[in-house]
Prior knowledge:
- The protein is an all-beta fold.
- The protein has no helices and 8 strands.
- The strands form 2 sheets. Strands 2, 3, 4, 6 and 7 form a 5-stranded antiparallel beta sheet that branches.
- It starts with about 25 loop residues before the first strand and ends with a strand.
Amino acid sequence: MGQSDAPSPAAAPSLPTPDISKMGHNPANFAFWIGDEPWVAGYSVSYAISFYDSKTQTESARSEWWGPKSDPKKLYGGYGLIRIPVDPTGRATGRRIWRKFEGQPERMIHEIPDNHTTKYQDDVC
């Protein structure tokens, strides 16, 4: 069997795409008064989640965007996210939280370093 005939090593299974259908927020858990950039009156924010495996340095496709959201009382910003999805396969060693404001580029704002924490307070400016 020549080098070209050797079987290729099996690729690591890919991580699933997170399902955000049950994700939500704690309506009593905001971090900022409206007026602190980027939390300004009329903000519209959305979040997405990806699974991450630090052993293989791989990341899943991102979830759909959860949102857009804004504080209905127009007083606060900085969402307390709840029911953040976990990787049902158990391969992810962490999750990444992505955020975008209307009219601004998306960015990763936090990496949860495990596959069991389901809450995160967005207190990133």
